[in-house]
Amino acid sequence: MINHLKYILTFTILVIGLNLFAQTATVQYGKLEVKVIDGMTKKTLANAVVKLEGTKYLKTKNSDSTGLAVYDSLLTDIYNITITHPGYQKTKLEEVLIKSNIITIRTISVLHKSIILSDTPQPKILIKKDEPTQQYLNNKQIMRMPY
Fold first, then answer.
1. CA dist., res. 78 & res. 47, Å (int)
2. CATH 2.60.40.1120 for the 28-110 domain, yes or no
């Protein structure tokens, strides 16, 4: 009876262990490379904050000197990418699909904050420019003027 109990216990542990191993073996991973560039000059931007957000994942990295932020071993999922950098507009790329065993590469252009897009209202002029004054000069005044 004790031998049967030993065999049943060993078999149960073996089945549970194989079941756990089978579940972890089906998890699939991909890789994401985000390159951040200036929207006007097309030069890469170092130290841009790249925020990656998925259903079970939230990670923030800074782009390196070549403008790259690399995320290894991402679960296959749909992610949103948000880019921020001082002096630039916040840029968001939604629904980026990461597939199993594939490197997904995204180049994201960011624009300066001072750029006014056509669909935004134009700023109001608060200070009016002074009108030029007229002054008449005679010959003596003209001769004394510096060159």
1. 24
2. yes
